[in-house]
Amino acid sequence: MNDNNDDSFNEGTYKIIGQPIDRTDGRLKVTGAARYAAEFTLPRLCHAVLVQSTVPSARITRLDTRDAERSPGVLLVLTHLNAPALPQRGRAAVNPPAGRVMSLLQDDVVNYNGQPIAVVVADTFERATAAASRIQAMYTPQTSTLDFASAKRAPHAPATQGRAPSETSWGDFAAGVAAGEVKIDAVYTTPMEHHNPMEPHATVASWDGDQLLLYDSTQYVSGVRSTVAKTLGIPLDKVRVVSPFVGGGFGCKGSTWSHVVLAAMASRKLQRPVKLVLARPQMFGPVGGRPQTEQHIVLAARRDGTLTAMRHDVISHTSQIEDFTEPSSAPTRMLYACPNGATSQRLASLNVGTPTFQRAPGLSTGTFALEVAMDELAYALAIDPLELRLRNYADAEPQSGKPFTSKYLRDCYRDAATRFGWARRNPAPRSMQSGRYLIGWGLGTATFPAHSQPAAALATMLPDGSALVQSGTQDLGTGAYTVMTQIAAEALGLPLEKVRFELGDTSLPPAPVSGGSMTSASVGPAVLSACNALRQKVIMQAIRDERSPVKGLTPAQVTIDNGVLMSTVDPQRREELAAFLGRRGSPLVASGDAAPDAEEEKRYAAHSFGAVFAEVRIDQELGEIRVPRIVATYDVGRRLNAKTAMSQLRGGIVWGVSLALFEHSVLDRQTGRIVNSNLAEYHVPVNADIGRLEVAFIDEPDNRFTALGARGIGEIGITGVGGALCNAVYHATGRRIRDLPITLDQVV
Amino acid sequence: MQAFDYVRARSIDEAVLNLREPSTRCLAGGTNLLDLMKGDIETPVRIVDINRLPLNEIVPTADGGLRIGALVRNSDLANHRYVRERYPLLSRALLAGASPQLRNMATVGGNLLQRTRCYYFYDTAYAACNKRRPGSGCAAREGYNRIHAIFGASPQCVATNPSDMSVALLALDAFVDVRSARGSRRIPLTDFHRLPGSTPERDTNLDRDELIVGVILPPSRFGGRVDYLKVRDRASYAFALVSVATGLRVVDGRVADARVTLGGVAHKPWRAEAAERALIGRPLNNETIAAASDAAVVGAIPLRDNAFKVDLARRTVARSLRNAGAVA
Ligand SMILES: Cc1cc2nc3c(=O)[nH]c(=O)nc-3n(C[C@H](O)[C@H](O)[C@H](O)COP(=O)(O)OP(=O)(O)OC[C@H]3O[C@@H](n4cnc5c(N)ncnc54)[C@H](O)[C@@H]3O)c2cc1C
Ligand code: SF4
Question: What is the pLDDT of residue A748?
Fold first, then answer.
């Protein structure tokens, strides 16, 4: 929600915003010219390797580093015995998402398997790796908790996370249950998962005197900067973080994890630049993952399908050192018009690495449970699952009573159902067979809250008529470079190729974490505001310029279109922008910022929505589950780039398939290590697993939410898919599976 | 990974001489060996690169069989005209394995010798793995053993052999041709891989100083009545939970000869001889198929997390027999 509604260009008549523009950084990426964190090579660069604990809970009694230190090429072995003492033992408070409880070699305590216990630095990566394997750790084991089933018997309530309380209720749940004629009461579970972006975490740390430069693969350059500065106890302006390209983040790079600070510590000690890249197995533990959840849902409804009560109680796991909550109850708080409800979030602490935000935290796992429960209710009532959802359609957020900034979920249901052919569905389980295959059709609702945060941008018009626009935001591969370039070009009246957008640097104006699907909605308005201001500035200068054809006009009579300054009253009075700026000789600069409107936030609830229809085909004899097609329609506000938006949604759906059918970090019962910590055994879908994805949009701008009418699109795609697939499996087989992932052994 | 010496063998003789040295391994496609070295599971001090040896030919033999050089890439073998025509079973098994990129690198010799995918074998943080460290125990027994063996395991090791190709080679009665400085020998595929017993550190009966020079296929007995069926957790690029290679010869409506071999279920490619016996002499109908697939899983001993494999193996054998015999 932004108040900088500048009417200087007419919304709805955008020429560049919304277009399916190819990624402006695409060429750099496919030619390998885009430099990722680990590719910044500095003179005298040396290589660090992280050594991790191999036990879940212990005190380190002996750490024999002699062999490692004597290994060829080794420059430093950093352990708790020789690491510099950090202020507050390395736990200087910075709030999440940036700040997390890190493991920075400040003591001998091991809280989880895979915890960093040493850093080995050598002249080459290979030598550092070889030396790292020679470190011998001796432990005194402490009691550990690895079993979720027993840990959840003594759960604790998390400290409030963000703005969402851990417990909510509205109306009178007990009365609502009593008023219901049909009840569903079931428990759903989702497993531990790990993000595994293509590019693992990577940091290059380099000191110049007391000035620290970090090349880091991060979703939040400003967050890394403040966390590292606070943790090391140095002033903020002594740290610069640079992150021009990120090979995927999905939440795990939204926080600053131990390896970043450890690289800085090693580099300071050595007075040489140090590179630290996590190996794939190291992605399973010290850098977060999605916690496992157990979700208890109670639904009560009248015979006609009207919900009278809903309850959603969630227990998710966290670590022993920090609380992180997977807010799976979130959809129950806002999705259906139900007068009585209650939700709670509880945590069970295990000796594992702290979990974190993973694409659509809470909503991905929560829509699975809720949408399966709704399907169960539909069957119990003998009402079509789509009809049941329409009968409980919420025109205002049930818990808060707030109206939505805009909501077209009904249109999503209708559009996707028609395209899918839902009306032809025979609701009876096992009724749709094709040869040896069972066919199942299922529905799930997608939703994700719309967020935005304060952001700033800087726009510079250069004498050659091109513009440089900058903001310290990030592009995780989502298309932020492209979308911001489009917004800037539109606002400045320049062709796309005359605009260069820069990001990923703390020396640029600050922007929030690229998480919560809020980059477009936060940075977009800031870019718009900076560029509007810059255009005004250019026009003001032009009308005062003796030699300009627009000299003497009022600002309102002048426009810039496709790089040409012109009079709106007499189009003959025109001049190439470059000509005017060239005459002037010096650049023009304007800054802009944007922030959510607190008043609007109090009045309205902002969410994106979608409807997901899935078909599964199951081999009756062998149990193999295939997904020939998914049809989905989304209401995400205005799409800023039709192509990147489509990619986000398709990619999100693929991950939804992964959540439903594949992903599962298996925790070894005895050691708390992730058993399948590599990409051969940690399964995500391959191309052959993905059938037709037919994605459509309801293109209704949400102008109450942002001046651009855009809400986020980064996360909603994964939501609703788990429910849709699970419901389709039930329809195909008559088996109600409530535990993800659904594998072939569960369906035969 | 630990530092190692690298030599490139210019001749087979040079390669086998090198293999006499302790702690020496040959490097073929490297798709398994290099991963094992990166994980410190294998720490050879010397690598003999055999990629330049003249072992990449596929030649018909006088008796109508095929001789396949040890360095023939899995993709080339799968797509070779003779193989597709005469040994479609082998072609299909190869194409069911790994990914195109891996198959382009992987060789016949390397595929035969690829090591188990047991999670605990690959993670050196586990002290207990008899295959990695003889006498240390077996972490998989009490650990997560969904992908482990249901046949022929021992208290010392419950790992499975992950190869698809070897399952087909076993069904085709192939031989492995090997050479060492001591001489040459020919090992039938049935005797090539081993059960774990009390020496799970030995996957095969190949001696440390022996080089695989090729694989010999006898003339195909089954023609087109073959099938390779691989059941896995995703549609492609995953190891078999269970795979079945079937070869049938049907004469006058009765099964005259049969091979049923299974992958993903034992420490070696597993021949289901009881199933074969249940087939031979009988008409290939649903009744025979049911009896044979039941027979295939007699004696299976599942672990905590892989009980589903027993029934899955039975169903997969049944489906594969129907596919091979074109029984509806
Ligand atoms: C992610 C992944 C997925 C995979 N999926 C599958 C699958 O689904 N099905 C499947 O069957 N396989 C699969 N594989 C395994 C793959 O088939 C093997 O890695 C490959 O066949 C090994 O061949 P290579 O030539 O690369 O062997 P290398 O790695 O070079 O060698 C393997 C071993 O064989 C030895 N060796 C090689 N050649 C000779 C020789 N001529 N004489 C003596 N010793 C020799 C080496 O010293 C080494 O010990 C997968 C592998 C990976 C990494
Ligand atoms: S099953 Fe075999 S390979 Fe796996 S841990 Fe046990 S001994 Fe090692």
Answer: 87
Token pair recorded at residue B295: 């027979």
Task: Assess if residue A302 is contained within a domain.
Answer: no
Q: How many domains does chain B have?
A: 1
Domain membership flag for residue B239:
yes
Q: Name the pLDDT band for A4 (thresholds 50, 70, 90).
A: very low
Task: Report residue A13's pLDDT band, with 50, 70 and 90 as the boundaries.
Answer: confident
Tell me what pLDDT residue B195 has: 98
Tens digit of pLDDT for each residue in A424-441? 999 999 999 999 999 999
Q: Write the residue in B1, B142, B235 that is nearest to A686 by C-beta.
A: B235
For residue A6, name the pLDDT band (cuts at 50, 70, 90): very low
Q: Which pLDDT does position A163 carry in this prediction? A: 65
Q: Residue A711 is part of a domain; what is its CATH number?
A: 3.30.365.10
Determine if ligand 1 sits within 6 Å of the CB of residue B83.
no
pLDDT at A679 over 90: yes
Mean residue pLDDT of chain A comes to: 96
Closest ligand to Cα B232: 1
Burial zone of A463 (CB within 10 Å; 0-12 exposed, 13-18 middle, 19+ buried): middle
Indicate whether A535 and A630 sit together in one domain: no
Atom of ligand 1 nearest to the CA of B263: 11
Q: Name the 3-class secondary structure at B318.
A: helix
* Domain final position from A551, A570, A595: A595
In a domain, A176, yes or no: no
**Do A134 and A278 sit in the same domain of this protein?**
yes
Ligand nearest to the CA of B233: 1
The verdict on the CB of residue B30 being under 6 Å from ligand 1 is: yes
User: What CA–CA distances, in Å, run from B314 to A383, B231, B244, B288?
Assistant: 39, 12, 10, 13
Whether A677 and A741 share a structural domain: yes
pLDDT, residue A161, reads 58
**Full strand arrangement of the beta sheet holding A116-122:** A74-79, A116-122, A46-52, A274-277, A202-208, A211-216, A239-242
- Residue B317's domain comprises 226-325
Helical ranges in chain B per DSSP H: 12-19, 33-38, 74-79, 81-86, 88-95, 100-105, 108-113, 119-122, 139-142, 165-171, 189-192, 273-279, 286-296, 308-325
Same-domain check for residues A507 and A559? yes
Let me know if residue B175 belongs to a domain: no
Ligand 2 atom showing the smallest separation from residue B143 Cα: 5
Q: Tell which of A280, A668, A690, A746 to mutate to test the B interface (max B CBs under 10 Å).
A: A668
Final residue of a structural domain among A568, A595, A622: A595
pLDDT of residue A162: 60
Q: Same structural domain for residues A443 and A460?
A: no
Q: How many domains does chain A have?
A: 3
CATH number at residue B290: 3.30.390.50
**Residue A3 confidence class, pLDDT cut points 50, 70, 90:** very low
Do A415 and A538 sit in the same domain of this protein?
no
Domain encompassing residue A47: 38-143+197-283
What element of type H or E holds A228?
A: helix A221-232
pLDDT at A9 over 50: no
Give, using CA atoms, the residue closest to atom 48 of ligand 1: B33
Q: What are the chain B neighbours of A626 within 8 Å (beta carbons)?
A: 235
Decide if B321 is inside a domain. Answer: yes
User: Across the interface, which of B2, B3, B308 has its CB nearest the CB of A745?
Assistant: B308
Q: What pLDDT band is residue A291 in, cutting at 50, 70 and 90? A: very high
Of A159 and B267, the structure prediction assigns the larger pLDDT to B267
A660 close to A368: Cβ distance less than 8 angstroms? yes
Stretches where chain B sits below pLDDT 50 are none
- B320 within a domain of the structure (yes/no): yes
